[in-house]
Design a protein that fits this description.
Layout (H helix, E strand, L loop, with lengths): L11 H14 L4 H13 L3 E2 L4 E7 L5 E7 L6 E9 L4 E9 L17 H6 L1 E10 L3 E7 L3 E8 L5 E8 L17 E6 L4 E5 L3 H5 L4 E8 L7 H9 L23 E5 L2 E5 L7 E5 L5 E4 L7 E10 L5 E3 L3 E4 L8 E3 L5 E6 L7 E6 L4 E10 L2 E7 L2 E7 L3 E7 L5 E8 L5 E9 L16 E2 L9 E6 L5 E10 L4 H7 L14 E7 L8 E6 L7 E9 L5 E3 L3 E4 L5
Parallel strand pairs: 1-3, 20-22
Antiparallel strand pairs: 2-9, 3-8, 4-7, 4-9, 5-6, 5-8, 10-11, 11-16, 12-15, 12-17, 13-14, 13-15, 17-18, 17-19, 21-28, 22-27, 23-26, 23-28, 24-25, 24-27, 29-30, 30-33, 31-32, 31-34, 34-35, 34-36
Length: about 550
Amino acid sequence: LKMSWFWFYLPLHLLMATCLCHSIKAPTTSSQQSFKSNLFNFYHSLVLADGKETTIHLLKDIPKRYHFVLEEGRALAPFSVTVTPCDVPIEWSIFVYKSPPGKATPGDHDTQEVSKSHRTSSMVTTIFNYKGNSVETYMGMSSHSALYLLEFLSTERDTHITVYLTTDTTSGYLYPELPVDPRIDVIGIGHTTVTLAWKHSPSVLQHRESIQYCLLVNEKHNYKSLCAAETAIRSSGMKLPPTLALSLSPYLLEPQQVMILSNSELSIINKVSSGEVRQVCMGTKNTYTVANLSPSTQYYFDVFIVNLLTNASAAYTGTFARTLEEPEPKVTELKDGKVIHVVLDGKKQKFYSLQYQAKHKKIHFTFQLCRGQIRVHITRNGKTVASENLSGLRYFSLKGKLLDTYLVQLRSTEESNSSVKVQASPHFHKPLFPLLPESLKIKSFSKLRTCRSVTIAWLGTQEESKYCVYRKRIEEDQIWRELQSADRCSGPESRHKSEKVLCKYFYDLNLQRAVTTETIKGLEAGTLYLFDVYLFGPSGIPVRYHSKVVKTRKKC
């Protein structure tokens, strides 16, 4: 490739003479004016490198021009130009300045004098133009020396593109080759999965070690190039990790790793997770199942064949698919007086549904929160009658009509698993749980603490009930775990026999005096203890008070 510098130093008066000569020689038409304008542009363009991908930044409505020269003496010299828009559609054209046979080329440094007759007999011709955001390649052949001008223009906003020029088509191509049929086939659709397949690239068969497929998944639209996808992700305002610089280039990833954009932050993890954009590189496999998608959601899928040595890529024709609708949640029937223990998955955040058909006008729902945090929503014949977050033991007494249908929906409000016990029964049915005091808190008396004993107190009720006290020695770093992970529905059967302190019965018709105290002796000095009280009602099902941690005095 021979670059032209002569025209950059052409005297201004000679340039003006050239333009004047053209205007006198032929009638003025829009086509001729365009030719003269483009000839003038040759003198104000940059050299386009051969055999190298060039990134070009375009400002809105300001054209940018590059040129290259094909030498005389090369019989039928082939060349190709590939342009990849990285954002909005652009306009680009190729113009050629041809000299008549035997005349010097504009790039000939040995020609210091160029006659007017030579310049007027030269022609500027438009050989290609395109407008859009697809990757386009122009392949040409020149039989004599010529100077080529490429002009690029963005009319929507500032953007950037990549341009690849090559005059050596025999030593391998920068971009991987697409198959004859570059479409992506959707061969399977589920509620949360989509399975894709595509034809192998010829480049995979020739250069398996340096080629791999990468899949891009998003909910907005297809991308016509990896460059366009990278630009869209960056424009969302996210901050890229320093190790990625300004690229989402797949060669930075190991096979099976996933690049995810979620909450405007980019991360690389080893499994597919939800997010706005997912990029998965799977080596040379030409089938892939995308998992962990949302039901009844449309996704767009793009496959890129990537040259790991050059980081150049080619895009298959993108496709889209809609996942199947989520099946109706399974509804469990509630029967009179029967207790159901429900465990909820906090990660999936799905509702668990229970249905009850009333055989009486008054209905009594009881919920005992065992672990975690749970939201309950109750409807009667489709209309909401109660909705709140559960805490401890909760009763709902509802009045309706015979054969009313109640739907109870439960959902965990935190990421960890939650569990609850549920009972539905007619209002006059014998209650499952004992009568509860105003508070389930255990109180300790600091002034009554000694090195060997602790005094605690708790509220009772007007109903004679059984209370059992348990203690457990713990360490400082166990406090949070013991309090947070405690199953409030579990009874004393889950405790070690050595932890039991005592059981007692008491009640008082005057609620103001329904308080009992107990001094637990035989403890060790300066030691932490976890105390629990269990209340047993007529049905024998226990209710656990809130655990209390107390430390004995170190010195007495």
